[in-house]
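question for whoever is on the cluster today: can someone run the full assembly for these? two chains, 579 residues total. i dont have access anymore since they changed the login thing
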Amino acid sequence: MEIVIMSGKGGTGKTSIAAALGVIAGSRVVVVDSDVDASNLFLLYQPQKFREVEFYSGKKALIDAEKCEYCGLCYEKCRFSAIELIGELYKVNDPNCEGCSLCSRICPYGAISMLDNLAGNWYISRNRFQQWFVHAALGIGQGNSGKLVSKVKEEARKIAQEEKIPFVLVDGPPGVGCPAISAISETDLVLIVTEATPSGLHDLKRLVELIKHFKVEAACLINKADLNTLIKEDIEGYCSSVGIPVIGELPFHPVFTEALQLNKTIVEMDFSDINNTIQEVWKTITQGG
Amino acid sequence: MIVRACKIAVVSGKGGTGKTLVSTNLAYLASKTHPTHLYDLDVEEPNDHLFFGTENASVEIVKQMVPLVQDDKCDYCGYCSEVCEFHAIITLKDRVMVFPELCHSCYACLELCPQNAIQEGFRDIGSISIITNQNLKLITGTLNVGEMATTALIDNAKRAESDSGELHIYDAPPGTSCPLIESIKGIDFLLLVGEPTPFGLHDLDLIVQMVKKMGIPMGLVINKAMPENHSLEQYGQQNQIPLLGNIPFRRDIAQAYARSELVIQTIPGMEEIFRQILDGVLVRAKGMRQ
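^ ran it for u. tokens below:
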């Protein structure tokens, strides 16, 4: 069973809660950090890398200055402003290039080649709780993060299958765009971590729209629930109206930040109320799993 | 004489560090002295409008090109499918199928079709709304849920109202991948919002290392600042990034945010903090007259 933790809005406590659930699940889980362009879970898990693999995705154009006759056709036809005129030379601005290959196909002098793009790395590690941990680092400014999200999920599923580990727990990316779509596709359950603020509720609604679109099961945990009790009630009302159970709430408490500063997971801080809630959440979402 | 607006991006890497808190308050304060535009470029989850309301918003739909195959001209040769790097167009024996959500609007199929059978079609990917509040314009990009064209929408939002206003503040999306790059293209100053946790520091550093190479001037605001924690101050000093302000880690600030309030209006002492940040930004941003 694969469980993905999502939030829509960033900073609601996704990673803190994913890390804690992972610790509680012990040997029954493979943990994945799929927030590949700003991954943080490794800071709490201090993994030892077992395997490191380069991740190639898409292509980038390269202009051969020897063959270029400066006709400017590539510059004119590129829809992404990825060809720049620097002095007298046409050059490719890598971050802008989407790898569509149009320039390479239309260049009358065959001066443009398309090179495979090294977009980042992914890793299989053992963390300090002796669990398998699959994570990745997307190169700065790279696109295609959705494909890397799919890749880390796929590798984790393989490990779970080979080692007969019943659960894959995925710390998801924020937002509702390309990486979020990859994170929730073909998953068994989305655990939404929201917060009792207007932004939390607003972003929750957009995430739920996406979840409904992909017809995935979901449950909701309200973090920072005491920041605004009216909004908390709005969240509960909204969740009930769309058939998503609210399975727990956590307070706005400095111990979350203190734990991060010590590179510890929240369940290692011995706050029994918070620990009990997270234990209960894990029990609820894995019932029948 | 048209004076180009000074463009400032508010970024953090990690989500939830306070980009929206800083952007909304800074823009509101700046608008008292300069015609200011606040661009909400977190188009997957835009939130700035929660602080200004959406009354009398003018809304424009953003469209993106997708291929439109003309059946009477197409001979099903399949060349369009061959040249599409994104597998967005598939040729069958007697028809061509387009998968709009995979299309990057590169025009390769349209440019290269031997029969000239492909025309420009358009589909909606999101919207841009504009509200005006005295000297402040809020421009919000919103991506339709289920769409992946995040960068295209950011690009469109940045073009809206770009010829007016003296100060443009971009509330950037989280992360460090293509949406962030799209947001910081062409800016004059980068305002980093950090929180003093290992998560906050790690994600901030990813951006700093990249932006250093681009030569864009930077300044740092510490949000959720704690008196006993100096990790971000030290980080700023090591990287020669000036510290422009500290916003303390306090429940009353989080609660004001949770009530959609601008903290400069409701919490004593916050206007002074934001005034200091604004002055620091304006002094350092290229080409900005005080």
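summary bc i know u wont read the tokens: The two ends of chain B are 18 Å apart (CA to CA). The CA atoms of residues 9 and 189 of chain B lie 7 Å apart.
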